[in-house]
Amino acid sequence: MKNPFGQTNRFDKSRAITDPEEKPKDPEAYTAHKKKLATSFAKLLQDRADRLERKTLKVENISIVEVRFLIPFSNVAPYYALNKFLKDFGLSPVMQRDFNRTVLFAIVDEAKFGNFHILLNQYVESDKRTPPQGTPYAIMTTLFDVKYHTADAIRNNCSGDLVFEFISNNAEVNAKYDLQRAFLIEYLDERRVLEEISSFTIDPYDKMVQIKGASKQVMVEIAQNFDVVAQAHSLRTVTVRPDKFNIKQLTWDLSINNSDDNTMTIGVLDNGIRPIGPLNEIVLDGLDVTESGDSLAASHRHGTVVASLAAVGHRFFGTQNNLTADAKIYSIKIMDGVDGYIDVIKVTEAIRSIHYSHGVRLFNLSVCIQSKAYNEMPSFFAYLLDKLSYELDVLIFIAAGNMYQDDLLAMQEDSHELHVYPNHFYNPGVSSAIHECTFTNICAPAESMNNITVGALADNYRPDTPTHLSLDKNLPAYYTRKNHYDFKQPINGVRLSNNYSNRNLFKPDIVMPGGDLLNDDSAMQVLGFGDNGNDYYVFDAGTSLATPIAANLAAQLMNLYPNIALQSVKALMINSADSYSHAHLDESVEKRRELLAERDYQSAFDDLGGAQKAVITRQILSAEDIHRNIAGYGKPDQEKLLYSTDNAVSLVLEDVISMDHHKVFLINIPEYLLNSTNGKSLHIQATLSFKMNPAWGNHVDYNPLHMSFNFLNSFIKDSPDKLAEVIADRHHDFYQGIWTEEIEQLQNKKDEEALSKEEKKRLAKLKTEAIGNLLGFKTSVNRWSEDFFPLVNKPLSNRQQISIKLAKKDIQKIGNQLVLAVRCAVKENLDSDLQEWIRRTPMHQFSIALRITDESKLEDKPKLYEELQAINTLEIIANTMADLDQDLEADA
């Protein structure tokens, strides 16, 4: 879509309304909190002394303390904590977790840190009858507890091959940080010579050190002496389930042929691909990052199966035995068997190398590492893949991960209600001897935001076979993993307010068929090696199989449109997805509601008062939300993804926007729809996707870039720039022309004398309604795809969706011209690297996929496809992104 646009350098990031004032507590209510802080600080001082005493190496010391907050750590009123902790307490933040409610600080000024201790003591010893609000020590009421960062916290119960994450380097710790880091490299070099470790690698962004073959003594010594390491993480993969059933067949009876040189190539990151009969023509070559030395050798069929599905997708399960591949395969061997360790730095280096040397843009990663705790920040692995996708023109399809096989078997042998589908997915606070819902959270690096995460449906592409553990083939499979973000769960004992949560932050992005467990009838029939003469096919199931089927769809799209932006591929796949009903989760939600009512009020939910019911409801995810957290946007529809029809048209908008800008695009609507007699004439579904440059060690700012979009009324026809300017500024003089008589009266009274509190509320409400009626294509403005407020404390998503219906009266109101508005802002208080990125990157790319469907019931109506093409500027996707890249280079 190349329609006219307008833009303005405006983005008012304030809020028209104020948050409700916090009600003061009874001063005695702080008694337990005071005791907790006093105890935790005494323990901090003891742990600090112990750590200094136990250091065995002569390395410059950096004292690291951990503070858990009850509110976000940020630079907003009334505490301005970021400035205060550095200026008054000598504490510089070096790692922020739990949506910036848990912060590691480096003590950079001992005298000022003494002030922290003094202030804390003042709070602890304050009169029980004196409220802390308004006192110098009021900020202490925002603390949950404090502790020293000990060696045990750093080691994190890890052993073997692992990654040590570095704290963030900043101006306050830079000198000591550099000395410690240099000492650490010397130390690791010595340990390598002494064969106490096998190897070590620093990642390209200097955010982590990966160590292989480390003895326990070395790990303990690193944790005890080096303060620049924040925490250790294991590199062990989630075990791939070995095949259980064989199909007695004496040949594969299948051949997969290469089509031509222009077919897309998919890099398969797995345990090697054996070029068995069906695959020998489509597997190009390989790169081995393990010690085996042969990327085309595999002791287990996992990577080989993944390659076959990436090449031909769902057609593998059809009746034809002579297939032409949609994609060629490049093998990237990242592990030897079905479990072990992944060298994450070599994985990212391999992706970079294959992209540059062979032009590979699509990759499949069907293996993963440890699962995520609720609301855990993005992993080091996800960070590396997000950086890679931001810097390169690549898109990685990542498996959400499967529940552990042993757990699945044990749960079926135990009749606990929690083990019954779908109860096992989401029941916080409820557990059995062998299961709690945390165990169904996604595995790293599936939380990667720039790439596509794929979950599994129970469908196995065999229509005459039943499911086993799952209720229906159209539903998520029992074993598939869900979103680990849950804004209903407390952090440091406090639940997040709506302002600090984000409904767009969920994984997986999509789901594809992956088969069901635990019997062969419910599983998928996939390739075996044929080593035993009767194992040419086996049965299997998993997100490992769903993921390459999704990657194959992307390859098909790119075969049709080879120059399409990869974020457009992501947007189109999500936009084409259909989600099945969430009714199967209603009973689980009802049971959870009753459980909380009994726990909190010792009563049935229906017997509670309205206020009590509201308290319970605020703690519960709806069935729709739970389903979204398991199935994402749903299953992509191949026909919708790849093609338009006469009355359903797919469009892509690929463009750029500058920071603190609003940009508007005009979409012309065919006039024939004004003859519609039914309520809904046009359905438009749109998905925004963009790449973001991730922030290290800052959970809230991990995605530092806000973009969102909306559909609005084109109330100014002659100037798109003026239209953008008015939309961007709710205080614009233009709006004075739409004020009602009551607004004018209140406005005049405001100019002459003070308004009462009720009158101020009334005036604000009337103005909001008037502006909303003007901006909206209906009587009020549609919600933006993502709320930016408060930008400083809001975790942001980089893909969002809006679905709207236009009736005849709506099309009349907008004069057959709909506005697609896009806005952009960047987080503040970012580290020096991202500040430089902001300076160097004035414009940011984005893609919006639109599916416009004629839902009118007109007889003998024109074709929507032809009508849209006649009145809009549309181009077949060919060189659009090449042109865009040239524009960006010129602007930079």
From TrEMBL:
Coiled coil: none annotated. Residues 263-587 form the Peptidase S8/S53 domain. Residues 1-31 are annotated as: Disordered. Keywords: Hydrolase, Protease, Serine protease. InterPro entries: Peptidase_S8/S53_dom, Peptidase_S8/S53_dom_sf, Peptidase_S8_subtilisin-like, Peptidase_S8_subtilisin-rel, Y4bN_pept_dom. Pfam families: Peptidase_S8 (PF00082). The keyword Nucleus does not apply. Residues 10-28 have a biased composition (Basic and acidic residues). Belongs to the peptidase S8 family. This is S8 family peptidase. It comes from Sphingobacterium corticis.
